[in-house]
Amino acid sequence: MNRLAIVALFFCACSLSGCVRKKQKTPKRAALFKEKDVAYRPSGLAYKYRLDVPGKTGALGDVVKLHFVLLTNKDSVLRSTVAENRMVVTTLQKPTYPGSFDEGLSMLSKGDSCAFWVSADSLFKKGVRAEMPSFIEKGSFLRFEVKMHDVMTMAEYRKEEEHMAKQAKANEDAVLASYILTNNIPAKLDTATGMYYQVVQEGTGSKPKRGNKVIVHYTGHLMNGEIFDSSRDGGEPFDFVIGQGHVIEGWDEGIPLMKKGEKGILYIPSYRGYGAQRMGSIPPNSTLIFEVELLDIK
């Protein structure tokens, strides 16, 4: 789950009420903003619903998925997760100060769109706790345009994540199986791991076990042929102890399939590699192909 970095994203985590939303009475006060019909919470937080969908708001610790656009009082965009194509997923927590953006998220149910005006001075002094950038006017208000895509309990979120992980695994397994079949690769599936292993030149020695130190040469590339790493480029082989977690799962589980002196190719799905994490030039969710020579076992 991606938690927002407060300095980078200009807002903190949020608190929740856990009940069906009730309309707030609007105190009489001078209009501070360009728009009409701006309402205020008792804390002073200004808001205006763009779309008000009946539903249940979140509770403390619930998970919310949202997009937001952050603008200055002159409508200059400071950040847009919509433009970044990056959904924000975070848990709802207690507001850090009255009238904060955190408080506003507690008002929203799934499907709502709402604008919130937050004091720039308070945000940086009490929320971010950093010096306010010079391009933001003192005494001004920053506007958050928020689209709430989902509100769920932690249990619901975990269940959804498990389902998505299973579906992603099934999809990746199907793609890798198709790749092996389409390219007529004489590789065998290791059903325990989901990896494929192809013997290129069979070894004559024993197979390594957990706790053994192995010395290998390797070249790693993606399914499109792009090489991302090779021990042969530096001329020095690579060594590690099997089962210590010093390498990806695909290596801890794949190298023991080889005999000493063997040359082979490991086809490692992302869930045995780097998963959804980007690693250097390796994109997230990438199947990895390693040409490996097992030089020695100690």
Give an account of the 3D structure.
With 298 residues, this protein is of the alpha+beta class. It folds into two domains: 6-152, Chitinase A, domain 3; 168-297, Chitinase A, domain 3 (Roll), CATH 3.10.50.40. Helix content is 20%, strand content 29%. The protein has seven helices and 14 strands. It has helices at 6-9, 81-84, 101-105, 120-128, 154-182, 231-234, 249-254, and strands at residues 39-40, 46-51, 63-71, 77-80, 88-91, 113-119, 141-152, 188-190, 195-201, 213-221, 227-230, 238-241, 263-268, 288-297. Strands 1, 2, 3, 4, 5, 6 and 7 form a seven-stranded antiparallel sheet that branches. Strands 8, 9, 10, 11, 12, 13 and 14 form a seven-stranded antiparallel sheet that branches. The model is unreliable at 1-31 (pLDDT under 50).
The averaged pLDDT comes out at 88
Task: State the CATH architecture of the largest domain.
Answer: Roll
Portion of residues within helices = 10-25%
Write down how many β-strands occur, each being a DSSP E stretch of 2 or more residues: 14
| Oligomeric composition of the shown chains | single chain
Per CATH, the class of the largest domain reads Alpha Beta
How many helix segments?
7
Topology-level CATH name of the largest domain: Chitinase A, domain 3
- Please report the distance between the alpha carbons of the first and last residues: 40 Å
**Biggest β-sheet description:** 7 strands, antiparallel
N to C succession of SSEs: HEEEEHEHEHEHEEEEHEHEE
